[in-house]
Write a structure and sequence with these properties.
The protein is an alpha/beta fold. Helix content is 51%, strand content 13%. Bound molecules: 1,4-dihydronicotinamide adenine dinucleotide (NAI) and 3-(4-hydroxy-phenyl)pyruvic acid (ENO).
């Protein structure tokens, strides 16, 4: 138990991320009241069955009334529409935040709707899995993981400090970044790996000389890791690709160049070149493990690797 940080918290979108936040709020007693809104009746009903909040509404506009903290957890392509719906109903002094995987586009979509007196602080917890929906969430998802804020230049320090306290109560480590820089960093560490995974699994699926049953049967190798990422939600990843287009294309150009160089080294039997690259990348992995950011870190890794998930 951490104690009440906000009298009323409204969660818009109750999928993997929204429901994980809801579970932590409930378990740690961080809010006087939790109001949940999502546009699908079925998802809302499921959230109620799971006991994720105190009140459940399909209308986001109704749900934000009187809320001290509003957290938008919807696919990034829907953030502008949600902001437009809720804007006239936000309480003066309220904090409005999001969890979207891209930041410059979310800011461009949401900020024009945010009324004077409401503190809009964009955020992104770097924690998740390939699952989606309210059943996929779990408490402790954010423990030991980074949460990056990309505050706007005139952000109220008091509001920022309250939001930092909230994410700290969920166990997150907190950083701040310029939105465009965030989008570049995430393009290489998160968006490209997913795109590469979608691509390699698609390539395997298209092969004429290797059957689908062979791919499934023998995939207990490197390929298996790619299939986990490639099982991620299509709506979410379509939106990320469309809303972080420039940074992703920049990283893909670099990636393709480096891949061509690797292809050339293999073609010409340049063993030393291959050995040098594979040794360099190995040290990156070691640094990640040493920093506690590998899959065996906190609850995230164990959950994601559990065959039931
Ligand atoms: N899945 C992950 O690993 C991570 C996702 N994110 C970001 O978090 C956000 C949510 O992702 P997930 O929870 O994984 O997705 P999800 O698919 O599990 O849940 C999305 C939720 O948004 C609702 N929704 C969709 N459009 C809506 C609208 N117009 N109005 C109201 N509700 C709407 C859906 O009904 C659902 O409840 C996305 O922006 C994603 O980029 C951030 C970190 C990690
Ligand atoms: O499942 C994985 O490996 C992830 O990388 C989850 C994830 C997806 C999107 C984000 O913006 C942050 C984390």
């Amino acid at each position: 138990m951490s104690g009440i940080l906000f009298d009323r918290i409204t969660l818009i979108g109750i999928g993997l991320i929204g429901s994980s936040i809801a579970r932590d709020i409930r378990d740690k007693g961080l809010a006087g009241e939790v109001v949940i809104s999502t546009r699908s009746e079925t998802t809302l009903k499921r959230a109620e069955e799971l006991g994720l909040g105190d009140r459940y509404l399909t209308s986001a506009a109704e749900a934000v009334k009187g809320a001290d903290l509003v957290i938008v957890s919807v696919p990034v392509g829907s953030s502008g529409m949600v902001a437009e719906q809720i804007a006239p109903h936000l309480k003066p002094g309220a904090i409005l935040t999001d969890v979207g995987s891209t930041k410059a586009s979310v800011i461009a979509q949401m900020q024009p709707h945010v009324p004077e007196g409401v503190h809009f602080i964009p955020g992104h917890p770097l924690a998740g899995t390939e699952k989606s929906g309210p059943d996929a969430g779990f408490s402790g998802l954010f423990k030991g993981r980074w949460c990056i804020f990309t505050p706007l230049p005139d952000t109220d320090p008091e509001a920022l400090s309250r939001l930092r306290d909230f994410w700290a109560a969920l166990g997150s480590r907190i950083d701040e970044m310029d939105p465009l820089h965030h989008d570049k960093v995430l393009a290489i560490v998160s968006h490209l790996p997913h795109i590469i995974a979608y691509n390699i699994v698609g390539t395997a699926d298209d092969l004429e000389t290797v059957t689908e049953s062979e791919v499934i049967k023998y995939s207990a190798s490197g390929f298996r890791d790619f299939t986990r990422l490639a099982a991620s939600d299509p709506t979410m990843w379509r939106d990320i690709c469309m809303h972080n287009k420039d940074a992703i294309l920049e990283m893909l150009a670099r990636f393709s160049e480096d891949l061509s160089s690797l292809q050339r080294a293999i073609r010409w039997g340049e063993g030393d070149k291959l050995f040098e690259l594979f040794s360099r990348t190995r040290t990156i992995r070691r640094s990640i493990v040493e920093a506690g950011q590998d899959v065996d870190a906190p609850d995230f890794g164990r959950h994601a690797l559990d065959p039931k998930n």
